[in-house]
């Protein structure tokens, strides 16, 4: 075989190895996102606490900054969970999933997949930058060691400002991060449906998961606060069910593609 052809084969093998790595990472991230670091673990904790499966921790979200500080000092794991700290892990995993999906669907519709990747990565970055769990935990430590009433008042005011940034009932930075990631998921699912690379069940599950997910930021934007909570609970509950199916479908297909990366590279949309 001529040297030029040998070099071309080596280049193709390098590219295949690169896509193969993304398939592996995306598949692993999807499994972890389903089994361990699911989104909205705080709400899941409160549900399990309400029905008695979990027997420690508060039954409702703390209503004051002082209550948050007390919870973070007495049970930091529960406090961080309710402040959606573990959602940050989920968003990082979602970013890795988008990498795997881009590798698999890049030739099905490169323009839409580039748009989806951009929306997804910006959404992940916005959410990570706006989550205040670590900052609240740091303030709680300072509050516990404060020696004067003036110091405590200052720390309480700072805590209130942080909670306002992360209020799920307003269209703030955290909600915007969620919106961007959900829009990205909707675009990816539409590409999936036409690609022939993923099954239709996976594609439709993604469309439904992200369509219902959009009900959350839309509800926050247009509905009065008195009806936001039931809207959010309904949309996110339905979305979560389809999201599990979507992630499992993604994880399985990316795991299959890892051994034959060319399947994802050459299947064209119809």
Description:
This protein has helices at residues 3-35, 41-50, 65-74, 76-82, 85-105, 110-130, 133-145, 149-165, 173-195, 200-222, 225-257, 262-266. Helix content is 80%, strand content 0%. The protein starts with a helix and ends with a helix. The model is unreliable at 1-15 and 265-270 (pLDDT under 50). The protein is mainly α and 270 residues long. It contains twelve helices and no strands. α7 runs antiparallel to α8.
Gist?
The chain is mainly α and 270 residues long. Helix content is 80%, strand content 0%. The longest helix is centred in the N-terminal third of the chain and has 33 residues, at 3-35.
**Strand portion:** under 5%
Specify the helix fraction band: over 70%
The number of helical runs is 12
Low confidence ranges = 1-15, 265-270
Question: What value does the average pLDDT take?
Answer: 84
Keywords:
elongated, 2 domains, mainly alpha, disordered N terminus, 0% strand, 270 residues, single chain, 12 helices
């Amino acid at each position: 075989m001529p040297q030029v052809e040998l070099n071309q084969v080596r280049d193709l093998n390098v590219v295949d190895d690169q896509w193969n790595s993304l398939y592996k990472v995306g598949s692993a991230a999807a499994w972890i996102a389903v089994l361990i670091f699911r989104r909205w673990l705080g709400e899941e904790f409160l549900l399990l606490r309400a029905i008695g499966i979990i027997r420690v921790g508060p039954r409702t979200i703390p209503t004051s900054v002082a209550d948050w500080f007390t919870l973070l000092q007495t049970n930091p794991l529960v406090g961080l969970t309710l402040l959606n700290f573990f959602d940050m892990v989920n968003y990082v995993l979602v970013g890795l999933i988008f990498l795997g999906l881009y590798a698999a669907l890049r030739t099905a519709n490169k323009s839409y997949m580039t748009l989806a990747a951009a929306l997804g990565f910006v959404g992940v970055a916005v959410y990570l930058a706006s989550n205040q769990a670590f900052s609240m935990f740091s303030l709680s430590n300072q509050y516990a060691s404060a020696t004067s009433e003036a110091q405590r008042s200052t720390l309480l005011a700072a805590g209130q400002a942080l909670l306002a940034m992360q209020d799920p009932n307003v269209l703030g930075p955290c909600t915007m991060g969620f919106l961007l990631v959900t829009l990205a998921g909707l675009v990816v699912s539409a590409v999936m449906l036409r690609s022939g690379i993923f099954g239709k069940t996976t594609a439709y599950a993604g469309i439904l998961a992200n369509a219902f997910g959009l009900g959350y930021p839309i509800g926050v934007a247009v509905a009065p606060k008195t009806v936001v909570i039931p809207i959010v609970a309904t949309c996110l509950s339905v979305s979560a069910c389809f999201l599990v199916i979507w992630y499992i479908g993604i994880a399985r297909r990316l795991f299959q593609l890892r051994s034959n990366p060319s399947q994802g590279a050459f299947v064209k949309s119809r």
